[in-house]
Automatic annotation (TrEMBL):
UniProt name for this protein: D-3-phosphoglycerate dehydrogenase
Origin species: Chengkuizengella marina
Keyword Signal: no
Reactions catalysed, as given in the entry: (R)-2-hydroxyglutarate + NAD(+) = 2-oxoglutarate + NADH + H(+); (2R)-3-phosphoglycerate + NAD(+) = 3-phosphooxypyruvate + NADH + H(+)
One BP term from GO: L-serine biosynthetic process
Length: 528
C-alpha cells in the first residue's frame, strides 16, 4: 500500500485518481510546520504540495520511504531540489495547468493598476464619491514589456495584442523568428525599461533573475510606468520599487507575490496607496487547481507504479517521442549494468557506455541513468534510482563516459558497457532483437546469445576435452538443472567461458566443488 501525504490545499476533484487507485491511501494534513512534517514523513511514499509547504533537506532526510514530491503548480522554489536529487526523490510539477489562470490574473492586476480599481473601491465603500483622484490610463497603444516569454509570458502577449498594446519581450530563448511569429518586438531588459508603459515579469526566481529589476533599471524607466509581478517575489527589488514610486518614476505597481510570504505586517507595500497586492492568487481558480491536481496525481501514480512520467524537475525533460524510442531498452540497459557489475571484482573507476545503430541518433541520457542504476544497484540497492544514479556515481568518484558510434557489429542497435577498474576492464554488449526482446550478445571478447534474466553461473575455464561434461555432471549430481549453456573461446585449448542458466541457485558447496575442478579458473554466480 502506497501512502500519499497532501500537505497543502489541493483540489479533491483533481486528485480523485489517487483516491480511486488500488493500493494507494491518501492523507490530507495541511498547515504542518517543518517539525510536524519531520515527525510523520517517514510513513509516506509520496508528498503533494503547492507553494506553502517548504520541503527542506531535514524533511527529506527523515523521509526514508519518499519516492516522489509532486508540486501541484509550476514553481518549485519551495523544494530543496539538490537534497531531493541526492536522496533519489523525484520532484515533478504540473507546468501547464495554471498558465491561463496566472495570465488572466496578470491582466486583472494590469487593469487594476491602470484604473486604480482597488483604491477607488476602498474609498467608495467608505461613502466617499471621489472621481478626481483615480484618473487612469488606457492599455490601448501602450508599450508592454514582458520579461520571461515562457508559457505565461506568451499567453500575456497574445491577450495584450487584443488590447492593441505594443509588446517588447525579453527571454534568453526568444528568437527573432519566434518574436515575429508572435507579433512582438524582441528587446533587452534595458530596452524594456526605457520604452515600456507597463512591465510584467514571468520568469522563475533564479540567481540571474533575483533583483533583475532594481535601482539601475528604475532609473532608466519612463515616468509613469506601471509594474506587475505575478511570477515570484524577489525578481523585482521591492525596496527599490517603493523608492522609484516615491520619486515619481513608477506610477504604481501590482504584486501577487512577495520576497517572503506572507509579507511582514510592516512591509512597505502594505500601506502604500500606489501598490496593490493579492495573496499569491495567480493559480487560485477552480480550473487551474483542478488541472494541476489532475496532472500531478497522474504523474505521482505513474512513478509509484514504475510507469513512465514526463514532468520531473530534477531530471532533464524527455520529450515523449524520445521516451517512446528509449523505453524498450530500459530493461536491457539495467540488466547489462547489473550483469557486468556482478562479474567485476575491483571497485569501479570508470563507466563507459557506447550507443550504436538506431540508438546513436537519440538523446540517450535517460537510458544512461538506468544503465548506471543497474551498475550501482548491486552495491547500493534501493538507495540508487534513475534520479540520483549519475549523481551518486559522480560523488563516488566514478568517471562516466558516454559515446555514440556507427559500428553495430551487424545489429540494428547495440549498447556496449565497459567497467574499468584498477586491475583491468570488463565489457558487455546487448541488443534488442525484434520479436525476441533483450539479448546479451557479447561478454568481453566472447560472442554470446543470452536472454538477460534468471540465475547464471559464469565460468572461466580451460578449453579442454571433457571440461564441459565434467561441469554438467557435477551440477546434475547436485540437483542443479542447466536450462541453457553458452560456450565461448578465443583459441582452441585456450581461455574459455561458459555461461549457464540454471533453475536454482547453486549452494556454496556446489560453487566450491566447481572452483576445485582442475579446468575451472573461476565460477561466479550472477542473478538478474
Ligand atoms: N502567481 C502565481 O500563482 C503563479 C506564478 N507562477 C510563476 O510564473 C513564472 C513563470 O511561469 P511559466 O510561464 O509557467 O514558466 P516557463 O518556464 O514556461 O517560463 C519562464 C520563462 O522565463 C525565462 N527566463 C528564465 N530566466 C530568465 C532571465 N534571466 N531573463 C529572462 N527570461 C528568463 C525562461 O527562458 C522561460 O521562457 C514562474 O516563476 C512560476 O513559478 C506560475 C504559476 C502561478
Ligand atoms: O505554480 C506556481 O508557480 C505558483 O506560484 C502557484 O502557487 P500555488 O500553487 O497557488 O501555491
Amino acid at each position: 500500500m502506497f501512502k500519499v501525504l497532501v500537505s497543502d490545499p489541493i483540489s479533491d476533484l483533481g486528485i480523485q485518481k489517487l483516491f480511486d487507485a488500488n493500493d494507494v491511501s491518501v492523507v490530507k494534513e495541511t498547515g504542518l510546520n517543518e517539525d510536524e512534517l519531520i515527525k510523520i514523513i517517514s510513513d509516506f511514499d509520496a508528498l503533494l504540495v503547492r507553494s506553502q509547504t517548504k520541503v527542506t533537506r531535514k524533511i527529506m532526510e527523515a523521509a526514508t520511504k519518499l519516492k516522489v514530491i509532486g508540486r501541484a503548480g509550476v514553481g518549485v522554489d519551495n523544494i530543496d531540489l539538490d537534497a531531493a536529487t541526492q536522496r533519489g526523490i523525484i520532484v515533478i510539477n504540473a507546468p501547464d495547468g495554471n498558465t491561463i489562470s496566472t495570465c488572466e490574473h496578470t491582466f486583472a492586476m494590469m487593469m487594476a493598476v491602470a484604473r486604480n480599481i482597488p483604491q477607488g473601491y476602498k474609498k467608495t465603500i467608505t461613502g466617499e464619491w471621489d472621481r478626481k483622484s483615480f484618473v487612469g490610463v488606457e492599455l490601448n497603444n501602450k508599450v508592454l514589456g514582458i520579461i520571461g516569454m515562457g508559457r505565461i509570458g506568451t499567453e500575456v502577449a497574445e491577450r495584450a495584442k487584443a488590447f492593441n498594446m505594443k509588446i517588447i519581450g525579453f527571454d534568453p530563448f526568444l528568437t527573432e523568428e519566434r518574436a515575429e511569429k508572435l507579433g512582438i518586438e524582441k528587446g533587452s531588459v534595458n530596452d524594456i525599461a526605457q520604452k515600456a508603459d507597463f512591465i510584467t515579469v514571468h520568469t522563475p526566481l533564479t540567481k540571474e533573475t533575483r533583483h533583475m529589476i532594481a535601482k539601475p533599471q528604475f532609473e532608466l524607466m519612463k515616468k509613469g510606468v506601471r509594474i506587475i509581478n505575478c511570477a515570484r517575489g524577489g525578481i523585482i527589488d521591492e525596496y527599490a520599487l517603493v523608492e522609484a514610486i516615491d520619486q515619481g518614476i513608477v506610477f504604481g505597481a501590482a504584486f501577487d507575490v512577495f520576497e517572503s510570504e506572507p509579507p511582514q505586517k510592516d512591509h512597505p507595500f502594505l500601506n502604500h496607496d500606489k501598490v496593490i497586492v493579492t495573496p499569491h492568487l495567480g493559480a487560485s481558480t477552480q480550473e487551474a487547481q483542478e488541472n494541476v491536481a489532475i496532472d500531478v496525481s497522474e504523474e505521482v501514480l505513474n512513478i509509484l507504479l514504475n510507469k513512465p512520467f514526463k514532468n520531473a524537475v530534477n531530471m532533464p525533460h524527455v520529450p515523449s517521442s524520445v521516451l517512446n524510442k528509449l523505453q524498450p531498452y530500459f530493461e536491457l540497459g539495467e540488466k547489462l549494468g547489473s550483469f557486468l557489475t556482478q562479474l567485476t571484482k575491483d571497485s569501479i573507476e570508470e563507466i563507459h557506455i557506447n550507443f550504436s545503430g538506431e540508438l546513436a541518433d537519440v538523446d540517450t541520457a535517460p537510458l544512461s541513468r538506468i544503465i548506471i542504476k543497474g551498475v550501482l544497484a548491486h552495491y547500493l540497492d534501493s538507495e540508487v534510482n534513475v534520479v540520483n544514479s549519475m549523481h551518486l556515481a559522480e560523488t563516488k568518484g566514478v568517471k562516466i563516459v558516454r559515446q555514440r558510434s556507427s559500428s553495430t557489429k551487424g545489429f540494428t542497435n547495440l549498447i556496449t558497457l565497459t567497467l574499468k577498474t584498477k586491475s583491468g576492464e570488463k565489457t558487455i554488449a546487448g541488443t534488442l532483437l525484434n520479436g525476441y526482446g533483450p539479448r546479451i550478445v557479447q561478454i568481453d571478447q566472447y560472442p554470446v546469445d543470452i536472454s538477460p534474466e534468471g540465475i547464471f553461473i559464469y565460468i572461466s575455464h580451460q578449453d579442454k576435452p571433457g571440461a564441459i561434461g565434467k561441469i554438467g555432471t557435477l551440477l546434475g549430481q547436485n540437483d542443479v538443472n542447466i536450462a541453457t549453456m553458452q560456450v565461448g573461446r578465443k583459441i582452441i585449448g585456450g581461455d574459455a567461458v561458459m555461461i549457464l542458466t540454471v533453475d536454482k541457485q547453486p549452494s556454496k558447496t556446489v560453487r566450491k566443488l566447481l572452483t576445485d575442478t582442475s579446468e575451472i579458473v573461476s565460477a561466479k554466480e550472477i542473478i538478474l
